[in-house]
Amino acid sequence: MTENALRRSELPEKIVLFDGVCVLCNGSMRFVLRHERAPEFHFAAVQSASGRQALAALGRPLEDWDSVVVIDGDAVYLKSDAVLRLARGLKTPWRWLGALRVLPRGLRDWLYDRVARNRYRLFGRYRDCLVPDRDLRRRYLP
Fold it and tell me: How many CB atoms lie within 10 A of CB 5?
């Protein structure tokens, strides 16, 4: 077993990796937490030890993150696929956003990239990663 496989096996089955200093990303994770049908995902900022461990286990870059990453078992979703995977777990009517998968991935990812590249300018940036409140702390990885 490789070191990366060993590290991945130590992580929860379902994880969302996001930019912990991005205002849009943090707001999106809070939105998911409020509207999910069942509490199935754990969350980790890519700047955290768990986030960096998961990125390394997936062979993803540890700097210059360009995507939210959704890990669901052995499946890894990036960019618009990650957003649509998260939408599947939301309550109605938010889960209907999953219908956007009929759009070509190239178009979806092109739109995703425009927002991702400009997220700090458009939505702002925190100085440090936010600490989740006590109720949510169990869902966030250190």
Answer: 9
Handedness of CA 35, 39, 29, 97 (dihedral sign): negative
140 neighbors 43 (Cβ within 8 angstroms)? yes
* Residue at 50 is within a domain: yes
- Domain range for 25: 3-126
For residue 122, tell me if it sits in a domain: yes
Token pair recorded at residue 106: 């190239």
* This model's pTM is above 0.85: no
Averaged pLDDT in 10-residue chunks for the chain of 142 residues: 45 87 90 91 89 85 82 92 95 93 96 94 82 68 75
Domain count within the chain? 1
